[in-house]
Design a protein that fits this description.
- This protein is α/β, with parallel strands linked by helices.
- 39% of the residues lie in helices and 16% in strands.
- The protein has four domains: 7-213, 3-Layer(aba) Sandwich (Rossmann fold); 218-283, Helicase, Ruva Protein, domain 3 (Orthogonal Bundle), CATH 1.10.8.80; 385-452, no CATH class; 455-639, Rossmann fold (3-Layer(aba) Sandwich), CATH 3.40.50.
- It has a six-stranded mixed sheet, with helices on both faces.
- Helix 22 links the parallel strand 18 and strand 19 (619-622).
- It is globular.
Length: 640
């Protein structure tokens, strides 16, 4: 028999323990979402709650649970042997009047989340499938744990949790030492350790039982309801669930303290748990100002005024060290304003020498943000791998069962589809005495499953001198870092290529280390001219190499540029050559392209990044369009 670690022996984590106790007293609170780093005893505390209330069930929902395992479905054994459609309950039925515990709840598949949301909201589970129509009570306390580093939780599910608690490791040295001693004693003799802490469990259980008896008699004054409403309004919560949760939790705390009247202290204590995952800023924070070194001279801020810029260069010709700085800034501005300088002449050699001698700068990373959902459109290919970005067909039995087929490849029998295929022929078949349905090989159907896998993301970043103007490089680095953080959560493999001067540079070969990618991004230099063709060629070559190793890989090339180019690989004009490269790349259906336009908003715009996205048949967006609070989803709408 597995002996649980006693609840009364858990050191620290007072907020978490209190939140669980309040839910045991009043299940109407709506459960607890536990957020925190790994190794903080989240699962241990939840499982030990079974000690506090006699007969309470704790049902664990595994991450790879199928829809019929969660909601229930047809009992195929009885259907085949008895010829009756009998409902087989799932985990939601088992969790009725108990606790439904989901470890790493943020990693659940969306279709399982939808089932839980429906059941948690209505208090019952309805099953309409395989010719069955069945419903049963599903009143449970929803408890979930998550590590925020692993990704966020859907807002609909997050709001369904009544309370939210942040947990962290203990900082007190004495407590950490005692924790190690307790764990050692428990591992050596679990029975004796549990017996030593039994009085604490009994006392706490009795206190919870008494609170459950009196909670229906706990009252709250109208003035305190006004206080709750003001708290929620001040924190800009959406909807009214927070108000109700705070009131219910405050009543539970008052009953836990043996009082029949809710006090301000009760509300203040529980409000932090109810508002933690719901409060919002009234206004979004303003974007950080660009670094002082990036501010352009006002005389050079006009995109089309290249003649004045050249005149400024002449006027500053005798200023020694300032002359070189101004010339560099002016040449960058001219490069930004002239989309195609495609003529090649005898001055090219001098230009290349000057380009190589041009100073390089390292710009700081701008503000990061949560990015919009970026996925790959589903196809029928079977892939291997893991991750959280794009859905794909898989051969393993861990994916979601979506439909069936006649192909016999993995011995993952789809019983429902098999029975449906055999049903019309039962009258003309010779039935076996012990079976109700006679099956033949041609009836057998197998399950087609899908799950989320990671992608290979190649970041192609314009690092030419023109990107330093107006803080564009800082903003671009912020966008790339935001995408890198998203790639970490989605378990993607990433690579980074930059192009500047007369060539493209592989800053980071394909890797799963997002930390390494962020480090290279921070130190990436900027300066020189814009060889866009070289960057496209290098990115496509890297992706082709990856596809040769794994033909089922799903690469996404994210191009951070304004689309301008003034260095060609051949004899064509640079911009025309880059568009031709993009058009050729766009014919490869295995690759998805996203072009992030860094061209600043101004009166004069060339729109070359938009033309580039159309040439490669990719998605187009500005940096702000990548943000999660944008009105338009880049890829989701296209996939639908």
């Amino acid at each position: 028999m597995n002996i649980l670690y006693p609840f009364s022996a858990i050191l620290g984590q007072h907020d978490l323990k209190l939140s669980l106790i309040l839910n045991l007293i009043n299940p109407g609170i709506g459960g607890v979402l536990i957020r925190g780093e790994k190794g903080t005893a989240k699962s241990t505390i939840v499982r030990s709650v079974a000690d506090l209330v006699s007969g309470i069930k704790i049902v664990t929902l595994p991450l790879n649970a199928t829809e019929d395992r969660v909601a229930g479905g047809m009992d195929f054994n009885r259907a085949v042997k008895q010829g009756k459609k009998v409902f087989q309950p799932g985990l939601l039925s088992s969790a009725d009047k108990g606790i439904l515990y989901v470890d790493e709840v943020n990693l659940l598949d969306d279709h399982i989340v939808d089932i839980i949301l429906d059941a948690a909201g209505s208090g019952e589970n309805r099953v309409e499938r395989e010719g069955l129509s069945f419903h049963h009570k599903a009143r449970f306390i929803l408890v979930g744990t998550m590590n925020p580093e692993e990704g966020d939780l859907r807002p609909q599910l997050m709001d369904r949790f009544g309370l939210c608690v942040e947990v962290a490791s203990e900082k007190d040295i004495e407590t950490r030492i005692q924790l190690m001693e307790y764990r050692e004693l428990f591992d050596l003799d679990p029975g004796s350790f549990r017996k030593a802490h039994e009085p604490g469990i009994v006392t706490l259980g009795r206190k919870i039982a008494e609170a459950k008896k009196i909670i229906s008699h706990v009252g709250i004054k109208p003035s305190l309801r006004s206080f709750i409403a003001e708290l929620c309004t001040t924190n800009n919560v959406a909807g009214h669930r927070a108000d109700i949760v705070i009131e219910q939790a405050a009543k539970a705390h008052a009953a836990y303290m043996g009082s029949l009247d809710v006090k301000v202290e009760d509300i203040s204590l529980v409000a932090k748990f109810a508002l933690l995952h719901r409060k919002q800023d009234a206004d979004p924070a303003p974007p950080p100002p660009p670094p002082p070194s990036l501010e352009d001279n006002p005389d050079k801020d006009n995109n089309g005024d290249t003649e004045n810029q050249n005149q400024d260069n002449k006027e500053n010709a005798g200023n020694g060290e300032n002359q070189n700085q101004n010339l560099n800034q002016d040449s960058s501005s001219m490069e930004s304003n002239i989309p195609d300088s495609g003529k090649k002449d005898s001055n090219d050699t001098n230009d290349n020498k000057a380009d190589q001698a041009a100073p390089e700068h390292v710009f700081e990373i701008g503000a990061t943000f949560k990015v919009k959902k970026i996925t790959f459109q589903k196809d029928k290919k079977i892939r291997r791998g893991s991750g959280r970005r794009s859905r794909s067909r898989v051969s393993s039995k861990q994916g979601r069962y979506v439909n069936s087929s006649m192909h016999r490849t993995n011995n993952d029998i789809a019983f429902d589809a098999t029975l449906r295929a055999a049903a019309p022929y039962q009258k003309i078949r010779r039935k076996a005495k012990e079976l109700f349905i006679c099956l033949k090989p041609e009836d057998i159907r197998e399950k087609n499953r899908e799950k989320r896998i990671g992608n290979f993301l190649v970041f192609l970043v314009d690092a030419s001198g023109s990107m330093g103007a107006r803080g564009r490089m800082a903003a671009s680095k912020g966008a790339v870092l935001s995408l890198l953080l998203d790639a970490y959560q989605k378990r993607d493999k990433v690579a980074m290529i930059s192009f500047r001067k007369d060539r493209a540079y592989i800053n980071l070969p394909p890797t799963s280390s997002i930390e390494l990618a962020a480090l290279y991004l921070e130190k990436m230099p900027v300066g020189g001219r814009t060889p866009l063709s070289a960057g496209l060629d290098k990115a496509y070559a890297m992706v082709e190499s990856a596809l040769r190793k794994d033909s089922f890989a799903r690469p996404i090339i994210i191009i951070i540029t304004d689309g301008k180019s003034n260095v060609a690989l051949g004899n064509e004009k640079p911009v025309q050559e880059a568009m031709a490269y993009a058009e050729k790349m766009g014919q490869d259906k295995r690759i998805k392209f996203i072009v992030v336009d860094t061209e600043p908003d101004s009166v004069v715009q060339f729109g070359l990044a938009g033309k580039l996205s159309r040439a490669c048949k990719g998605e187009y967006c500005k940096i702000d369009d990548l943000k999660t609070d944008s009105l338009v989803s880049l890829v989701r709408d296209n996939a639908q």
